[in-house]
Each structure stands twice: as C-alpha cells, then as structure tokens.
Description:
CATH class of the largest domain: Alpha Beta
Strand content: 15-25%
Distance between the termini: 36 Å
CATH architecture of the largest domain: 3-Layer(aba) Sandwich
Helix content: 40-55%
Low-confidence stretches: 75-132, 418-427
CATH topology of the largest domain: Rossmann fold
Strand order of the largest sheet: 3-2-1-6-7-8
Bound molecules: NADP nicotinamide-adenine-dinucleotide phosphate
Number of helices: 15
Mean pLDDT: 85
Structural class: alpha/beta
Amino acid sequence: xxxxxxxxxxxxxxxxxxxxxxxxxxxxxxxxxxxxxxxxxxxxxxxxxxxxxxxxxxxxxxxxxxxxxxxxxxxxxxxxxxxxxxxxxxxxxxxxxxxxxxxxxxxxxxxxxxxxxxxxxxxxxxxxxxxxxxxxxxxxxxxxxxxxxxxxxxxxxxxxxxxxxxxxxxxxxxxxxxxxxxxxxxxxxxxxxxxxxxxxxxxxxxxxxxxxxxxxxxxxxxxxxxxxxxxxxxxxxxxxxxxxxxxxxxxxxxxxxxxxxxxxxxxxxxxxxxxxxxxxxxxxxxxxxxxxxxxxxxxxxxxxxxxxxxxxxxxxxxxxxxxxxxxxxxxxxxxxxxxxxxxxxxxxxxxxxxxxxxxxxxxxxxxxxxxxxxxxxxxxxxxxxxxxxxxxxxxxxxxxxxxxxxxxxxxxxxxxxxxxxxxxxxx
Length: 427
Ligand SMILES: NC(=O)c1ccc[n+]([C@@H]2O[C@H](COP(=O)([O-])OP(=O)(O)OC[C@H]3O[C@@H](n4cnc5c(N)ncnc54)[C@H](OP(=O)(O)O)[C@@H]3O)[C@@H](O)[C@H]2O)c1
C-alpha cells in the first residue's frame, strides 16, 4: 500500500524521520506492505511546497539544511491564488506548478511569508483555529482536499512536528484538527495537541474514523501510549510517577558529581537536547506538558499543562543535591498523577527519593515511567538511550500502526472507545 505523507514541520525530527523511512524502506515494504510518497512539506521560515505526484525529498532535505527555501522545488508562480487565503485578514498563498508534474501543485507563501502570516494570525484572534494558524492550516486543508479529489482511495497521513507552544498548544492543535476534518490520519511528536486538546482531538478522530497517534510526545519511541492502548485491555491506570525530562535529570546528576548547574545546562543546549528556550525544561513546563498528556490519555482527564502543580529545578542547589546523596537519597524531578475524589491530579516537582527507588537510579538523560494499575500493580518502563532517532522511530511506529488500522478498518480510536467509552472516561 502506498500512503501519501504531508509533513508539517521539517526540522530535526521530521528530517531524521524521512531518512529513517528510507533506511527501513525494505523492512517496511516487506513486513508491512508499506511504501510512501511525500506530497507536501510546510515550515515556518523555509516556505512550503506540495506536489500530488510526490516531492523530491532528497532535494527538500538539501534545501532546508542549507538554510534555503523550499521555493526552489517549484517553477515560477502562475497566476492562481489560494481561494479564501488572499484576503486582508488571511495571509496570501500563491500556487505554483511543480516541474515534476503537470497535475501537482505547489503552495508557496507569497511575499508576506509564513512567519509573518502566522504571527499576525496569532495576534488577531485567540479563539478561531483557522485565523490562529492562518497560512499553515490553509495549506494543510488545501493539500489534503486536492489529494483526496485526485485519488479518494489513497490514504493521507499528516506528520506534525512543529514546536511546542506552552500557552495554548497552537498552531499544532489546529493543524491536527484541520487534517482530521479533511480526512487524513495524523501522527505527531509534538506534545501540544495531547497536552491541550486530547479529548477533543481523539473524539474528532473517532467521528471521522481516522487515527490520531502521538507516541513521540512522551519518552520518544519507547512504548507508553501504545503499550496501554494495545496490550492492557480492561486495565485502568490509577496513577503514575516518572522522570520524563532528560535535561533536568542531566543537570541534577551533574550537580551530584559536583559540577555546576549552568555548565550542565549548557552541555544539554550544545547537544540540542534542551528546548530552544531552556526555561521550558528548567521551570518544569516540558514535564508538565508530558504529565498533562499522560493524564488526558491514560487517565481520561481533561487538563492542560497549566493545571499541573509545577515546581522546576531553578532553586535546587548543588549543596542540597549532594546532601541528599550523603544520606543515601537522590533528588529527581518527578512527574506524577493520582486520583483525588475520582479525578486525576498532576504534579511536577523535585522530590527526594530513597536510593532504592527506580527513579533514583536514573542518571544523565535516562527517563522512566511507573504506571500504577488496578489489575497489574506497578509497571515500570525505562529509557536508557534517547535522541533524534528514538523520536523519529516514534513517528515510524505510529505510521505502521496507521497502516495496520487501514488494513483492519479499526482505528486506534475505535479500540480506545471500546476500552474507555466515547468521552474518554474509563468504564
Ligand atoms: N528534538 C527532539 O529530540 C524531540 C524529542 C521529542 C519530541 N520532540 C518534539 O518534536 C517537535 C519537533 O522538534 P524538532 O527538534 O524537529 O524542532 P525543530 O528542529 O525546531 O523543527 C520544527 C519545525 O517546525 C516548523 N514550524 C514551526 N512552526 C510552524 C508552523 N506554524 N507551520 C509550519 N511549520 C512550522 C519549523 O520551520 P522552520 O525551520 O522554517 O522554522 C521547523 O521545520 C517539537 O514539538 C518537539 O517538542 C522533539
């Protein structure tokens, strides 16, 4: 089966993902009858392009990695303008025909550029999804609609890897909503959609009989959401505790060894592991977004990262961390949730743990999650290695899961509904 991929975000993760697909092409074809074409790529500063016969992905990689625009994938523009986009309130898109195909169209941001269009959209309206995301949502809708018109039978999967927005999860939430409404399946490594709108998007996916999968949102490709969804039928998750942020764990364990906070943070920034804005990690926002995602998906909650009781590691001192070690204890930034009056309540805070605790043994970039269940006691999942490949693998694994669902006709949401009830509450 050939699937069409629409890549929204073409940064480190998405580029590793397309290379990983290439590296595993034979296995995917042989074991899963899965081959693909990339029909669209959207970025913020490098333009966007689509070609319904398939884009030249190798060329797209070259262009973006050289800091160039995807415009070079397309021939000079013809006169058409994306309907509905070129108004005073909407950023303008011009339509270009790709040299590769007389049928293929390439939607490229016009002179205003994607950044300007998107930012002005965000300032204009904090409610309407279409206005929020302007050009990128219009691109998603138009590409999917064109592809479906051309070949209604061919599956389209949007791969969303834009950046996490900790205020509202946008524009990713609107990207996912648009793709599902237009009939595409969605896989994402972005925490935003599940941290801010899991219930809405899972229900939307179920209504449209589409998949919405997000394994990369927590602990990369290590099975968490799919472990529960696929292998724990009739089990309820009653709580969890984990170390889910690599940067802060690296800083804390460096301080245990007598090194400075700032130097350890700089190492994570240099390695490209810390978030672009390091306060996301240090202040616990990344862990809070993951906690919200876990609460929403595994415990039937409906929270955002702002509802998580959050304390970062900014006030931790080397003296306090080493004092804990001297008493055979360890400080770790723990993300957790428990049921309070039947409702899940999440928390992120540094905790002092006995050294025999599974979480206390995690050093450097290691992560772990302990799920508390009603039937199986505690289930611990440990991640000892992480990086771009593990995140890219999460997308690949989700892609194969969508492929399987396309064969059986049962979406993950159908199975989730069977397990959790249509509103996401566990029965
Ligand atoms: N890196 C990791 O190890 C890792 C691990 C787990 C999860 N994640 C998550 O994966 C996602 C991607 O991470 P990354 O490291 O690949 O980030 P990145 O290298 O900064 O790439 C982000 C991509 O999104 C594009 N973009 C941003 N806003 C956009 C918009 N409104 N419309 C279209 N494209 C937009 C950017 O375009 P420009 O380049 O043109 O600005 C860029 O191509 C993030 O949500 C991150 O939290 C990353």
